[in-house]
């Protein structure tokens, strides 16, 4: 069973009153209460004039001298007064509200150096710049490339005197003609270190070769088949190699 009482709104004080008590309440309101014509607030009838003087009399704002009602003075001073102090968003200086707009227009035009990208950015644009700064928004670069040829270590081949990357030395030795004589037993040669011996070696290496531009002949020592002009160079290098090696052979 619904036990909620019926309610009625009092035309005098605008309050909701139970239907059972409405007649007594309305009589009391009309006799002792009234509505302020300025703010529609219910006040005791004998205090209406005092209420109007305290709340609705015009007073001057001590900052801007504008006349406002007494009840609105605090709101005016905090939210609407042109002389109220406001803080600049850029320099945090407190200024009268009426001067703040022009001040921030000038203050926001000042520039500061971005410590990340080295650019000068206006104070008003710093928030946007922080999101788009190339030094902070660009992904970190990973150096996945192999070292360039300029940074590779080079060594000089003792046979052909050319510079070769260190990691290619072994492959170069296989292609370099003097390296084909590593299996040659130099101990079979005389260890005498006289010009006569060197001349004999040169004669044995170079003698008897036919002349010819494109003819191919075989080295008698390593059995490598080469064009004759290349074979001559090949055997001269072999002579140099053996001459250096003889110094290291035991007597």
UniProtKB/TrEMBL annotation:
An annotated GO cellular component? mitochondrion
Residue ranges of the TM segments: none
List the keywords (alphabetical). Metal-binding, Zinc, Zinc-finger
UniProt GO molecular function: zinc ion binding
User: Looking at the record's lineage, which domain of life comes first?
Assistant: Eukaryota
Q: Which intervals hold domain TRAF-type?
A: 59-100
Does Zinc count among this protein's keywords?
yes
Q: Name one Pfam family in it.
A: TRAFD1-XIAF1_ZnF
Q: Where are the zinc fingers (TRAF-type)?
A: 59-100
Tell me the PANTHER family matching this sequence.
TRAF-TYPE ZINC FINGER PROTEIN-RELATED, XIAP-ASSOCIATED FACTOR 1
Q: What name appears for this protein in its UniProt entry?
A: XIAP-associated factor 1 BIRC4-binding protein
Q: Which organism is it from?
A: Takifugu flavidus
The organism's lineage is: Eukaryota, Metazoa, Chordata, Craniata, Vertebrata
